Amino acid sequence: MVFQVKGLQSDNTPIVSNLINTSRDWRNSTTGKNLLKHSDRTIFNEGVFEVNETGKVSFDYLYDGGWYQGELAVFSLEGMDAYQPGSNAFIAEATRRALTNSNLGHILANDRNEGARFTQKMSWENNFNIDPNKYQGVKTFTMNPGTQFAFMLVQNTTVSDISNPTKIWQSGKMPLFSIPEANPGGKPIGQMVNVDGNGTYAFEDVRTDIANSDRDYNDFVFQIKGAKGAVSSIDLYSNSDRDWRKTSIGGELLKYANRATFDEGVFQVGNSGQVIIDFLYDGGFYQRAEVGIFSLNGMDIYEAGSKAFIEAAINRAKSNSTLGYTVVQDLNEKARFSGSFNWEGNFNAGQYEGRQTFLMNPGDTFGLVLIPDGTLNEALTAPDWAIKKDPLFSMSAANFKDQIQFADIVSNTDGTIIGFEDVRLDLGSNHDYNDVVLAIEGARRVGLADIEDVMAANRNWLNTTVGQQITHYFDNF
Questions:
Q1: What would the 3-class secondary structure string for 180-249 be?
Q2: I need a surface site. Which of 102, 135, 237, 293 has the fewest CB within 10 A?
Q3: What CA–CA distance (Å, rounded) separates 450 from 448?
């Protein structure tokens, strides 16, 4: 029996590591890992963000539409379940953490001393971005990988000023949180909203549970990369008469926010610059697929998933240079392992090319592109109706409706094994993520979806004979 208790402290409970039979350590199994991850969860369901594997998170202050001049901060949620959300003790601990400028928390922006990137008066209010020349660009802060954190906006003063919680009831000193439970009034929702599904968020700087809030959600608009969060959409709460997204400056902001900067589905090249790729399994019915890798350096001038982005990505993959390579040509190549499942046959044919090494610039970041049933060349000129030649990317933000077509099968210090789903998820995909399986070494994964989180339950092939060959691939090197 395994169970969890919170709110108690024990001085004489033995540590499981000192007693467990190492040959039967369930903590190392998939179920055990999922259980431990679950047990370490936060008590909060919304407004919570998790830092990716790099531990680096970027912040960009985009728009200042609030009369107040406050301060935005983040704080780690580790151990915060010991405090009643929204209580003086909770606020005191949140402010303490934010002021440490450490893995516990950071101050991100001070509205009084900084400018936002975009400036324009709205028809219903003045321009409050009085110092646009003081825009400080994209900032980066660090927290431990996997850390869960939340945002705190102090309305019209600084975090330091409310470190004594007795001051929060003074006008303009109320802290507002991304976590609904921590906000004044018990649980007012919609204090912070998700603007575009691409890391752009906005705070309403007046309490949303009182009539004074205009719900235009432009008071503090910012973008976060390097952490994923669960926040409700702006469409659920915004005042339709004050939708800044429909203004000219709103369009510019959203275009900028959707530029091709990715914090998921990518790989960072190691110090050697050598990236080793091995074609492990071919589980796709299509037999003309091609896979390319392409550098993301300079790709932020394009909108993710746009025609220009696709053309640049494919041309880089075709260049066979440090900008990118064609790494799999299914028409001529055979994968390392062969097998079949009860829902599909053995599609593996051709000549196995072995482990291939590609030279890229150390520290560079790259993505992957799959053409399901055609060549990279054909994809450049294919008509819109030729869905089988539409590129699918490792980065969900570049795919149709942000669909996850790419999953992490195994990750460890040796490398990463990934699987592509070669049919768009909205067009009859079987969700088995084994259509093209690759081993990648010499590059660190960033923000990949775990296959067990996206694979259909009735298409789980991991425990089959060939599945075990794939998952234990690195044991042989």
A1: HHHCCCCCCCCCEEECCCCCEEEECCCCCCCCCCCCCCCCEEEEEECEEEECCEHHHCCCHHHCHHHCHH
A2: 102
A3: 6
Tokens of 184: 């004044």
Chain centre distance of CA 29: 25
pLDDT at residue 7 in the model: 45
Cβ-contact 264, 446 below 8 angstroms = yes
Residue scoring higher pLDDT (165 or 354): 354
Structure tokens of 398? 């570049």
* Contact present, 335 and 279 (Cβ < 8 Å): yes
Mean pLDDT of 400-419: 94
453: exposed, middle or buried (C-beta count within 10 Å: 0-12, 13-18, 19+)?
exposed
Alpha carbon distance 212, 215 (integer Å):
9
pTM above 0.85, yes or no: no
Q: Do the Cβ atoms of 149 and 227 come closer than 8 Å?
A: yes
The letter for the amino acid at 17 is S
pLDDT attached to residue 216: 82
Task: Calculate the CA dihedral of residues 423, 429, 434, 439 and round it to 10 degrees.
Answer: 50
For residue 52, is pLDDT > 90? no
Question: Between the CA atoms of 298, 425, 44 and 73, what dihedral angle is there, to the nearest 10 degrees?
Answer: 10
The pLDDT value recorded for residue 475 is: 92
Higher pLDDT: 433 or 20? It is 433
As given in the structure block, the two tokens for residue 248 are 């000219």
What is the β-pairing status of strands 351-352 and 415-420?
unpaired
Query: pLDDT tens digit string along 119-177?
Result: 888 877 777 777 878 899 899 999 999 999 999 999 889 999 988 777 777 777 889 99
Instruction: Quote the tokens at residue 334.
Output: 């055979």
Decide if pLDDT at 302 tops 90: no
In contact, 269 and 365? CB cutoff 8 Å: yes
Please indicate whether residue 22 or residue 101 has the higher confidence score (pLDDT): 101
Of the CA atoms within 13 Å of residue 66, those in its CB half-sphere come to 32
Give Dmax (Cα) for the chain. Answer: 74
Starting at the edge strand that comes first in sequence, how are the strands of the sheet with 356-359 ordered?
356-359, 274-281, 436-441, 415-420, 406-412, 449-450
DSSP letters, 301-340, are: GSBTTSHHHHHHHHHHHHS-BTTEEEEEETTTEE-SB---
